[in-house]
Design brief:
The complex is a heterodimer of chains A (161) and B (519). With 161 residues, chain A is an alpha/beta fold. In chain A, strands 2-3-1-4-5 form a five-stranded mixed beta sheet, sandwiched between helices. The termini of chain A are far apart. Chain B is of the alpha/beta class and 519 residues long. Classes of the chains: A alpha/beta (161), B alpha/beta (519).
């Protein structure tokens, strides 16, 4: 395994915006200057079934998938999916499940923004600067949803640890 | 020597988007497809380029023929499908290998190892062998962009359709890709060439000879092309591999030697022999069928290949070590949440009535296939597109008065249900066919089709009248009803039609929740 590569696994169930979350992270890594690979599955899986997305970035990345026991970060959007995703996490990897409740509370008015909140939580762990995150949010969200999501992102980013 | 640096433009593209970009850059003019995961986004991405003529065709056979004829007509064209979609287009495909093309023609096929959203995991590499067509296999989105351009050039140079094979991981994986500008390609003349384009036996015999000779020339190219790349590493271990599998192996064994096949058919026998001899241990690693393995066995070189248990399912980085060590595949029991019909899906109403009546429900491919899973558990067969209609007839041939119905989606009915309905009426079959008309091709993400009255670019077009079509096919009764409106009235209608000695069609019409939100 390439030691400099950062490996993130995002997962939950269809409809939670997991693919959008990893899309934001992918763009941010790209804007930071990394080589990025992101992998996921569309179609039947999106009808409420388990969804996972793998994101890898670094100087040079080959496999689009993370090894079991190879993820530096696990971003789980649903408690029931956690046991399935946990084996991806490497020893010493960061499991961000404990922020899920706080993220939910943050977007209680607009639960569909949970993905943006969780990305905000993840963002402070990744070697990606704020400018790249800003650009990524602008790229992924259409103008009418941008300011709301930017607000959620930064609120989550500065959430108590 | 000084070089002027050209600005490099990068984009974050999926394999499907990158392939579309590459085709656009290569001067593509016409593209046709029917939606199918994981291939759908290729046409959706192409539709964003206004200078292209892009369409959702009613099925893959039609799409293939229209796109292929455009190439015969003199413009670069492309047909895209999923692996099982290619089965529908096999009739024109096999003979187009004989006629060859005029302008470049590329067939893009997206296989689905692991069956993330498919009814089987057939390996399309065999089609190249069977049809005697060259096949390119990109290993990532960047190569998808580059290889489709190569495919157009090969197609014109060798006067042949060229297959580009993708897999789910390449189609739906994203990476940073260097993009370029479009090369405008001029339209070639349409020529009347009786011996080339009229495939009657007398001409086809001559064209078969052309095909065999072309294959010999392609084989020579396979030996030289940089698409088949040797990466020199350690002499102790070498891999022959292709597609996304190359990425997994490279990740796990970065110091090994590689013969990375970008052109997987025809085989580059001399290159394979030389490579296998150049390393102490040679291992062939490939996803699904032993396509490379079985051929390389005929070359008389020593190599190792995966245990046959690995012919099932998708590979990944975790599979490579065990494969190289000659171990068997261990099936890991993970509790994955199954998909289900969305809350508020109109299919819930239809299935609740069918479940209550306890009938055998013949189904096929679409969101409504999910009706087979709990909690509805009210769909009892799913084989292929359109089979909801034909299974109703066939099962009734076995049990003429059996409690049997067929269900088919609106898009699926237009794709290949309508032929079954014509045949059922003609052959005096009885029963009730439900067209679950949710006004879209839902399972693949909501694409338009003839009965929506909108094109791939959401432009209004002639709307197919499903009820009139069913009457014209010879159905005795055609009812259009919203199943979510009055469930009692819906149930009463179903009971009445089931009791009649007639061929009935009930169009259960209510738009998919997801397209409503989109509109």
């Amino acid at each position: 395994m390439n030691i400099e590569t950062c490996n993130v696994v995002l997962g939950g169930i269809g409809g939670q915006g997991i693919l959008k979350a990893s899309e934001i992270c992918g763009w941010a890594a790209l804007y930071e200057g990394y080589h990025v690979k992101k992998s996921e599955v569309h179609g039947m899986a999106q009808r409420g079934g388990s969804v996972e997305s793998h994101l890898r970035f670094g100087q040079r990345v080959f496999s689009p998938l993370v090894n079991r026991g190879g993820a530096d970060f696990l971003l789980c959007f649903h408690e029931e999916e956690h046991s399935r995703l946990k084996p991806y996490l490497r020893k010493g990897g960061r499991d961000l499940l404990r922020y899920l409740d706080a993220a939910r509370k943050l977007v209680v008015q607009e639960p569909r923004a949970l993905n943006t909140a969780m990305v905000g939580v993840l963002s402070r762990e990744l070697p990606i600067g704020e400018a790249a995150w800003e650009k990524a949010l602008e790229t992924v969200f259409p103008p009418k949803f941008l300011s709301f999501n930017r607000g959620v992102f930064f609120e989550a980013r500065t959430m108590e640890r | 020597m000084t070089r002027t640096k050209r600005p490099v433009h990068k984009a974050f593209l999926s394999g499907n988007e990158a392939l579309a970009r590459g085709a656009w850059q290569a001067g593509l003019k016409v593209a046709c497809a029917y939606p199918g995961t994981p291939s759908t986004e290729i046409l959706e991405a192409l539709a964003t380029y206004p200078e292209l003529d892009v369409q959702w065709s009613v099925n893959e056979k039609v799409a293939y023929e229209v796109a292929f004829a455009a190439a015969v007509g003199g413009v670069r064209s492309l047909f895209a499908c999923k692996h099982v979609g290619l089965n529908v287009a096999m009739d024109p495909l096999m003979t187009s290998a004989y006629t060859g093309v005029n302008a470049g023609f590329v067939i893009v096929v997206c296989d689905d190892p692991g069956m993330h959203s498919s009814q089987n995991e057939q390996d399309t590499r065999w089609v190249s062998l069977y049809a005697k067509l060259p096949m390119l296999e990109p290993a990532n989105p960047g190569e998808a962009l580059a290889f489709v351009g190569e495919a157009f050039a090969l197609s014109e140079r060798f006067d042949t359709p060229v297959i580009v094979r993708m897999t789910t991981r390449i189609s739906h994986g994203k990476e940073d890709v260097v993009i370029g500008e479009r090369d405008e390609v001029t339209t070639l003349a349409l020529e009347k060439d009786f011996r080339k384009y009229v495939m009657v036996p007398g001409n086809a015999r001559g064209r078969h000879e052309v095909l065999e000779k072309r294959l010999v020339r392609l084989k020579a190219l396979a030996e030289k092309t940089r698409l088949n790349r040797i990466e020199e590493g350690t002499r102790s271990l070498g891999f022959i591999t292709s597609s996304v599998t190359y990425q997994y192996v490279k990740e796990c064994y970065p110091d090994a030697s590689f013969l990375k096949l970008g052109m997987s058919y025809p085989f580059c026998d001399e290159k394979i022999r030389a490579f296998a001899k150049s390393v102490r241990r040679c291992v062939v690693v490939e996803e699904l069928d032993p396509f490379l393995e079985e051929h390389i066995k005929t070359l008389g070189v020593r190599f190792a290949a995966k245990d046959p248990s690995w012919r099932l399912g998708e590979l990944g980085p975790d599979a490579i070590g065990p494969i190289v060590r000659g171990e068997q595949r261990k099936v890991r029991q993970t509790k994955s949440r199954p998909p289900r019909l969305c809350p508020g899906c109109p299919h819930w109403a239809t299935f609740s009535v069918l479940k209550k009546l306890g009938v055998f429900v013949a189904g096929d491919i679409g969101c409504y296939t999910l009706g087979a899973l709990p909690p509805t558990s009210a769909l009892h067969s799913c084989l292929c597109m359109g089979a909801g209609v034909t299974f109703n007839e066939g099962l009734r041939r076995a049990h003429p008065d059996g409690p049997i119905v067929g269900v088919v989606g609106d898009s699926t009915f237009v794709h290949s249900g309508v032929t079954g309905l014509i045949s059922a009426a003609y052959n005096k079959s009885r029963g009730v066919i439900f067209i679950l008309d949710n006004r879209t091709t839902a399972m693949t993400g909501g694409q338009n089709h003839p009965a929506t009255g909108l094109t791939i670019r959401d432009e209004p077009t002639r709307e197919l009248d499903l009820a009139a079509l069913c009457r014209a096919c010879g159905a005795d009764h055609v009812d259009v009803i919203d199943p979510t409106g009055n469930l009692k009235a819906f149930e009463a209608l179903v009971v009445e039609r089931l009791g009649a000695d007639a061929l009935s069609v009930i169009i259960a019409k209510h738009p998919c929740k997801l397209i409503k939100r989109k509109l």
